[in-house]
């Protein structure tokens, strides 16, 4: 299950996010930067208020990538269940030195490395983190006004990060000016945590946390878990999610002359879901077409594919992996072979459906 990491400034906001359903209380001071730290005293007060009901994390601060500086900040916060350490822009050697300096603290608190999507992230450090005893790794953003997470990294890159972390036994988290519509898209990647600050407030990132906003995000997370959706086909035709004539350049074709270059490929998808209720008001009540667009982009990004049939079958399987989908029709067309288009259309239905 994907868990909600809620960033708060102290015990008062911690109480609000606990009431709203947060799974991890994350202490930071947004006025001091991307990983602005609260004082050890505020950490202690928040730990007392939470009283073990949920784990508490604390950020080490917006710090230079210097071993002694970072280690001192982490040591001051080892009372937290987790301490998040920013791997800010620096040379690989500097980052390695910080990781090594923190190795002795790995048995005193859960160390979480934070990569920055807009700060030269080096994901090749993931095995180093695992070997040094880190518990997890996250991706966030430094500049909160420069675009949210997915403005800097593709869904393919984010998915690779989550899978690599999982393979290494590391927890994974994704954050960075996330908004409610991002939740179902990122949930497909199955990170352990999604982290929020601005989306939990009454407005700006440094505004107070709002209980209604917390509950809105909390409600989206269970809805994003495919395993949580029972499939109960009903008689008659359901509603249909449409993606029509989405054209992307990609490497496609079985002939030698089609290799090493891209061609335009057009995708159209119709996905049938159970009828949407008249009371649908939020992202938790719908299936987002962004999930289909992301799946198409992932196919285009993976490299050469010989057959359009392969693309169509794999896209249909990906869409049907979400248990809300009852049936899907996929059309894939190559646009550069002479006729207006050549390709395939197929329909797949969930087993046990009508």
Automatic annotation (TrEMBL):
<keyword id="KW-0456">Lyase</keyword>
<comment type="similarity">
    <text>Belongs to the DHNA family.</text>
</comment>
<keyword id="KW-0289">Folate biosynthesis</keyword>
<dbReference type="InterPro" id="IPR006157">
    <property type="entry name" value="FolB_dom"/>
</dbReference>
<protein>
    <recommendedName>
        <fullName>4-(hydroxymethyl)-2-furancarboxaldehyde-phosphate synthase</fullName>
        <ecNumber>4.1.2.25</ecNumber>
        <ecNumber>4.2.3.153</ecNumber>
    </recommendedName>
</protein>
<keyword id="KW-0704">Schiff base</keyword>
<dbReference type="GO" id="GO:0046656">
    <property type="term" value="P:folic acid biosynthetic process"/>
</dbReference>
<dbReference type="InterPro" id="IPR006156">
    <property type="entry name" value="Dihydroneopterin_aldolase"/>
</dbReference>
<dbReference type="Pfam" id="PF04476">
    <property type="entry name" value="4HFCP_synth"/>
</dbReference>
<comment type="function">
    <text>Catalyzes the formation of 4-(hydroxymethyl)-2-furancarboxaldehyde phosphate (4-HFC-P) from two molecules of glyceraldehyde-3-P (GA-3-P).</text>
</comment>
<dbReference type="GO" id="GO:0004150">
    <property type="term" value="F:dihydroneopterin aldolase activity"/>
</dbReference>
<feature type="domain" description="Dihydroneopterin aldolase/epimerase">
    <location>
        <begin position="241"/>
        <end position="348"/>
    </location>
</feature>
<dbReference type="GO" id="GO:0005737">
    <property type="term" value="C:cytoplasm"/>
</dbReference>
<comment type="pathway">
    <text>Cofactor biosynthesis; tetrahydrofolate biosynthesis; 2-amino-4-hydroxy-6-hydroxymethyl-7,8-dihydropteridine diphosphate from 7,8-dihydroneopterin triphosphate: step 3/4.</text>
</comment>
<dbReference type="InterPro" id="IPR007565">
    <property type="entry name" value="4HFCP_synth"/>
</dbReference>
<dbReference type="Pfam" id="PF02152">
    <property type="entry name" value="FolB"/>
</dbReference>
<dbReference type="InterPro" id="IPR043133">
    <property type="entry name" value="GTP-CH-I_C/QueF"/>
</dbReference>
